[in-house]
Amino acid sequence: MMEETMSKTNKSLLAVILFIAANIAGALHAGPIIHGAGASFPYPVYSQWAHKYNQITGVKINYQSVGSGAGIRQIKAKTVDFGASDAPMKAEELDESGLIQFPMVIGGVVPVVNIKGINPGDLHLDSKTLTEIFLGKIKTWDDPAIIALNPGIKLPSKAITVVHRADGSGTTWIFTHYLSAVSSEWKERIGTGKAVSWPVGVGGKGNEGVASYVQRIKGSIGYVEYAYALQNKLSHILLQNRAGEYVPPSTETFMAAAEGADWEHSAGFYVVLVDQPGKKSWPITGASFIILYKEQDDAVHAETLLNFFDWCYKHGDEIAIGLDYVPIPDSVVEIIKSAWIKEIKSNGKQVWH
Amino acid sequence: MQSCSLKTRKAIDQSVKVIASLSAVIGLITIVWILLTVTGRGIGALNLKFFTEVPTPPGIPGGGLVNAIVGTVIMTIIAAVISLPIGLLAGTYLAEIGKGTRFAEVVRFVTNILIGVPSIIVGIFIYALLVVPMRGFSGYAGAVALAVIMLPIVVRTTEDMLNLVPDSLRESALALGASRWQVTLNVVFRSAKRGLLTGVLLAVARVSGETAPLLFTALNSAYWFSSLKEPLANLTVTIFNYAMSPYQDWQQKAWGASLLITVGVLFLTITARLIMKRQGKQL
Amino acid sequence: MPAVWAVWDVWDENSPDRIIKPVAGDRVFRWITAVCAAAIPVLMAGLVCVMVFNSHLALKKFGLGFLTSTAWNPIAQEYGALSSIFGTGVSTLIAMLIAMPMGLAVALFLVEWAPPKVEAFFGTAIELLAAVPSIIYGMWGLFVFAPFMADHVQPLLGRYLGFLPLFKGPPMGIGMLTTGIILALMILPFISSVSRDVFKMVPSVLKESAYGLGATNWEVTKGVILPYALHGIIGAGFLGLGRALGETMAVTFVIGNSHRLSASLFETGNSIASTLANEFTEASEPLYLHALVALGLVLFLITVTSQIAAQLWLRHIIKKAGGK
């Protein structure tokens, strides 16, 4: 008996000791930690910003790439400090929940393919063929419509596997917004949304999942944020824009699309950058937004949070451009900061100065 | 019976033997294939950094999964601390005290059902029960989810092992004037010690490989935890996230983590079996 | 059961001078253990209540139609469980069709035909299959087995059996067939180990008489062992079934995540568990979340029903064996 209760006591004692040790170890590593969750679209740049910021200031930003839908849900449930979404919330919805949203970075959604012999930038597609591929109407790569746009490229008679998102995604929102804008059939049948009823295809989780499937499945086509295409060496296409030009995705073409945006007069910074005019504009450009509560419980915590975003605006440009994102222009940053001053309060006192 | 010739009957007999052997060989090939894959792909990731550093963002090389390893260990230990006492005592009730009662029958029935509940349902349950009211994902929620999965397993194995102890032992102890609870703790437990330990090890092995219940409770984190009330890094959800990612570096780390978990689970399982074998020999 | 166990407080009546008075320690011990035992049904009841409470919006809106609708449209807020149920059903069916015969064959091999050393070796190897965590199956499935299926198995099936609607479509590797096969490998050890135990229990006398009459090994198996062990085999089947229905991680990795019903096994789909794993943290509207919990409730009911059936079946066997 002694043996039994002793070993049981020993076990519990060990557990308690470990527990205390763990908490001490944790406390030693403690610095302020900020939790965010949401879009996978900006994850490559957010994670590098957070890493650099942590090296400089010791503040931890724990950003989980779970998809825009999850990001909105979590900030609404107050399980995180900030949410991130590429699908901007409408002003009424923001006001209803007491949230404020502002753009953090701009990027491009890029169709990518896995076809033998096709390199990045080889394949040309226009809005019609792209839509029909995603509608399931064009089923093989050697379809006449595709060949017509790509004389001189040998296309195999392989079946097309469409890869879309399985989770609630702002990237999907931007992409379907584009498809709805260029195709009335898409608009009527499928529509715009973070998760839609896809007529064909396989679902990947996050931009990561789509990139992963496109890597594996021969003859596949998917859509990802450009950084994912670059980091994983996927073959992007050249897409025809509104002005009739075939443009590649790049910081330059994303910036061209963002040029005409009217941030100042859009409530909640609700601006959509798809199908923009301009010879150099990339047709599927989008901004990614941060969402927080206007009323913050802890003023110090809120200020730490805003300091991070401020740093990203001021010092994060190089990292962003290195990943082919477009930083928010300084003029817009000014407007954002005045919104912070006006809207974000803690117990009645403004947080940002 | 059949009017087949002896030749046909022998032929059928042989072919069935071949099919049966083939099936066994397929089983063998599968486990060997899996173990070779996990070892081959994972061993390259298990360097010193893996065990001492926290992850770096994609695009920045290096980093490790020490926070996830620690997180998994902590949650498993807390889950064990919660479920073992309750499970052992409940199993004791079923085998020793309430034997034959209607109540024990009901509990036994429900325990068997609970063992079969998919772990993702347990995750949803704890999400609604703890994560939402606590306003956040936490290591605690993850540990409780694992405890809920462990509990019925511990109850069942405890009951089975205690039932194996012969009544003569109990009778002798009672004849010597011991009270019921003394008999149970001193004599019965001691005699079933090995079996109970086996049950515990198997339950721990089972939950340390679980992913689904942690998806909505502990979530994951890229940092050392500062408190268990926060999302807690753990190996299994990390494997899930990293494996589905397109980054080579992350995929390799996922394999390293897979190797670690596989080695851990197999170690616990094989240890449990060896203990049981020794018990068998002693009896 | 000896009389000593019949009553907690009093010794058996044959020795009236050995009455043990209830000790305070005994009462406390009894009370503590009873409370712990009660934790189990309380937990179960709590689980059911929480699930129902968190799915009532969807249950109210869609009613029983939830089970027959193939819609899954988060924009239009139309949700139906059919495509997920279909995926769970088909993948489990494939798994059972493969694993049951295979598991029985392996058990037969181990019990009847393998020499002891071979039995020990193969027996251990197959039981290790049960110890491997499901996420490892998922990893292996996605990175190794699915490409193997895509490059070697599916093209062959497509070429020779492609006229069947079962094998139409491009060989992607991931999809229903691969999922079914991986599930079969996961439940194989459960079926084979239970069958092994049951086969060992067949009295040698029965087998020997059959051999004495000149039966071959297979005839003895078919005519003596299998009928005798039938009940146990069905029990093994229930065990495997329960495991396959609830399996999440391995399925999520390779099923392809599309809400679609398709006749082809090469196509992707969704199971209830994989839908939950993928979409639960994403559901941003209450109705979406409730629809997902309702889906979980459906899975819960399916597994509980099969568990109850298994328990009742086991009782039936025990009664029968007791009767014999």
From TrEMBL, chain B:
<keyword id="KW-1003">Cell membrane</keyword>
<feature type="transmembrane region" description="Helical">
    <location>
        <begin position="106"/>
        <end position="131"/>
    </location>
</feature>
<dbReference type="InterPro" id="IPR000515">
    <property type="entry name" value="MetI-like"/>
</dbReference>
<keyword id="KW-0813">Transport</keyword>
<dbReference type="Pfam" id="PF00528">
    <property type="entry name" value="BPD_transp_1"/>
</dbReference>
<keyword id="KW-0592">Phosphate transport</keyword>
<feature type="transmembrane region" description="Helical">
    <location>
        <begin position="137"/>
        <end position="155"/>
    </location>
</feature>
<comment type="similarity">
    <text>Belongs to the binding-protein-dependent transport system permease family. CysTW subfamily.</text>
</comment>
<protein>
    <recommendedName>
        <fullName>Phosphate transport system permease protein PstA</fullName>
    </recommendedName>
</protein>
<keyword id="KW-1133">Transmembrane helix</keyword>
<feature type="transmembrane region" description="Helical">
    <location>
        <begin position="64"/>
        <end position="94"/>
    </location>
</feature>
<feature type="transmembrane region" description="Helical">
    <location>
        <begin position="21"/>
        <end position="44"/>
    </location>
</feature>
<keyword id="KW-0812">Transmembrane</keyword>
<feature type="domain" description="ABC transmembrane type-1">
    <location>
        <begin position="69"/>
        <end position="276"/>
    </location>
</feature>
<dbReference type="InterPro" id="IPR005672">
    <property type="entry name" value="Phosphate_PstA"/>
</dbReference>
<keyword id="KW-0472">Membrane</keyword>
<feature type="transmembrane region" description="Helical">
    <location>
        <begin position="254"/>
        <end position="276"/>
    </location>
</feature>
<dbReference type="InterPro" id="IPR051408">
    <property type="entry name" value="Phosphate_transprt_permease"/>
</dbReference>
<dbReference type="InterPro" id="IPR035906">
    <property type="entry name" value="MetI-like_sf"/>
</dbReference>
<dbReference type="GO" id="GO:0005886">
    <property type="term" value="C:plasma membrane"/>
</dbReference>
<feature type="transmembrane region" description="Helical">
    <location>
        <begin position="200"/>
        <end position="225"/>
    </location>
</feature>
<dbReference type="GO" id="GO:0005315">
    <property type="term" value="F:phosphate transmembrane transporter activity"/>
</dbReference>
<dbReference type="GO" id="GO:0035435">
    <property type="term" value="P:phosphate ion transmembrane transport"/>
</dbReference>
